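Most newcomers find our protein records easier to grasp once they have seen one. There is nothing in a record beyond a sequence line and a structure line. Getting from the letters to the tokens is the skill we practise here. An example says more than a description, so a record of this kind follows:
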Amino acid sequence: MSTTLILPSVLLIIGLALLVWSSDIFIEGAASTALRYKVSPLIIGVVIIGFGTSSPEMIVAIIASLEGNPGLAIGNAVGSNITNIGLVLGITALIAPLVVKSSVLRREFPILLFITGFGLALLMDHHLGVIDGIILISTLIGILIWMVHSNKNIASDDPLSEEINQELSAIPKHSKTRALMYLFVGLIVLMISARLMVWGAVEIAEFFEVPDLIIGLTIVAIGTSLPELAAAITAALKNEVDMLIGNILGSNLFNILAVLAIPSILAPSLIDMEVLQRDYPIMLAFTVAMVLVALPRKGNASISRMEGFLLLALFVGYLTLLYFNTVS
């Protein structure tokens, strides 16, 4: 390896490791704080943990946008959604077939599909601007309000509700001060690790003369999705399938509505044609594939090992496509 690449590569790896650790601390602090202030467990599971699992992508998007690399931020948002479905869901389904029982999640699959299509419609003018960002943030606020209102009436025996209560019972009962400290420390380390990742990724991209969009779609997207992968494998082993799927749905919603909004507002720019012609349509296709394999068939919705293998194979195929496009 060239000596020019050693420092950026080392800092990128350190940033990735710190990102995974700080994401866990941040989510634990946020959930513990919410519990101390008597926020509904279901709201914590659906909203706060969904926000927390997307916090790496949001922090990376802020850093990248402020430093003039909106392509990396956009690639991270789109690439993370593809990674969440192809890699995270694919590997998890290979470990154990996934049976989705919660009525809440079945209702949210079409919402994610609609929002993904809605995001593509906003980008069709080849520009990501402040107005687009405001529309995305407003849509996110509207969906969160709807989720909070609709989930108040969820049955206590709904599998998602039961799994969230089980997961929250394992969170240490920190005092308010300690919980806020976890939240603050997690956020600070998230920012530092994101800064290391962005700097390392940009330096590597410049060395190989690769667009920062490609780095965002691959290295950064996979790195910021590692917390989702770790959480998904743990949930699958504990048979908390609805919690696992809920995390992926929530993370993908936040990636489109919040992460894409960040470069829109902080660094308005033209959209690379590759995003519109290749990456976003592929993200939409992955979302459609997830909805199709998770549709109820003779009872509960399920994702089999074969379907997980197909999702993972499609993800590998997408990375191969990016490689050959970049080389050519």
Remarks:
- The first helix runs from residue 3 to 36.
